[in-house]
Amino acid sequence: MDSKQLYQEVILDHNKKPRNWGRLADASHNAEGLNPLCGDHIWVSLKLDGDRVGGITFEGESCAICKASSSMMTTNVKGKTVAEAEQLIQEFRDMATGKLEPSAQPNHLGRLTVFSGVRDLPSRVKCAILPWHTLHAALNSETTVSTEGDRDPVALAGN
Amino acid sequence: MTQTGSALQAVRAAGEYDVERIRADFPILDLQVNGKPLVFLDNAASSQMPQVVIDRLVQYQTAEHANIHRGVHYLSETATLAYEGARRKVQRFINAKEEREVIYTRGTTDAINLVMQGYGRAFLGEGDEIIVSQLEHHSNIVPWQMLCEEKGTKLRVIPCNDAGELLLDEYAKLFSDRTKFVAITHVSNALGTINPVREMIATAHSHGVPVLVDGAQAVPHMKVDVQDLDCDFYAFSGHKMCGPTGIGILYGKAKLLEKMKPYQGGGDMILSVTFEKTTYNVIPHKFEAGTPPIAAGIGLGATIDYLESIGIDRIAAHEHELLEYATDAFKTLKGVRIVGTAKNKAAVLSFVVQGVHPHDVGTILNEDGVAVRTGHHCAQPVMQRFGIPATARASFYLYNTMQEVDALVAGIRRVQKIFG
What we know:
The structure holds two protein chains of two kinds. Chain A has five helices and four strands. Chain A is an alpha+beta fold. Chain A has a single domain, classed as Sufe protein. Chain: A, CATH 3.90.1010.10. Chain B is built from 15 helices and 17 strands. In chain B, β7, α8 (197-206) and β8 form a beta-alpha-beta unit.
């Protein structure tokens, strides 16, 4: 695939000016996500208001794909119920790993489909998925996740 | 760098280095990637194979294959002759004193683990110290850490300066009565630094301490003479020198190998077996249990023939010219920093582009058909030393050209434009 397709304006913009950057002082859930393969390292913190994601932020060091994915994730899940967020997590993972074709199958991904190109770049899939993986961990009160762990959703080889 | 100076003279004496003719030996270099000619600059990770070596593998599988050291039949003897012949080529190539000092392994990592298991576990104990350097690949750190966990030995680390050069004064200070082993890399895979291993080995020997040298990034690119270095162990891999994967070499001094324990048990490493007592085979076979990668070993022999037909000094000189050309070209790039600026350096260019993660650099360069390695290069302590999570790394070999350096530089400009 062409990098112009992957590094679209919206991704470059979120990379340059990440939304919801930082850590929530009154977070109810936190998780740390690590991609040892490339060194992506992020923290997601969120505050649940009842069953809804009242606030969500992220920070860390990562590549553009991971940072933009994190940023767009926060803007997308804010205000959603936990069940809706979990559904979006699943859909995003399925899109990134090629199990879901957003143009042909029903989904709630909206602008997040700009990341669909990563499925053609196996070494970059984890960069896009890491924030979603970390959000899932936070919602389930796990504190850390690693893309190299047992729960690795894409199980790619590499050192 | 005297080595390069004399090598350059050798090149001039031997006539022009015809890189296009060398490229024609490598069929994979004709590939198009994303509609662009492949520019393969990931040679420090693994290098490409010339047609003569591919042909040798095919010839072996077509007309020479059987198990070695076993049968009295034609094919077994043919295979054994070719495999042992390749061992002699390796011996000559690195100037080992004796053929039996050359042990076939799966690669550098396997060779280092063999020494950890066979020497470390037998002769090192609680409170003993092993000296490694800040520049080591994980494969020359983790085996020793495993030994530390098991035996209570301790690691001491030689620091480096901001150029990526080891601090030899600090190295000398690390020695004490507790120092029992030194494991250092000849050439840093992440930065390209060529360490003064000959001098470092002499320092260790003055304290009566044996030295293992990780030569994975050295043997493919420069003349290595293990007797001149006086190293006790020297490890390297076939696939980084245009040979097959799955084969590597451990050189060891015979007197050390003889007193070491076998690494693995099995066939071929024994003289006799009863349920009461097993007698181990002599070196090198003591360390070569089971059926080895015979084709890969023979392929390694053919690879050595190929490299020698060009001349390792001429290859070194060509790479040095590429490195100088690339280093100068990088100076014209604003916001690009070379990581690793040792005076004595192999043709490795690790770099970071300001504001762009190396993985994004690598993905965009791939669009131009340019293959570089991105990440921590299995050398996380090096990255920690320089305070960066990762770099992009271009590493050159005998078939790379100035035009390919130009393609790399143009690709980096495109990265900067996209992320502008």
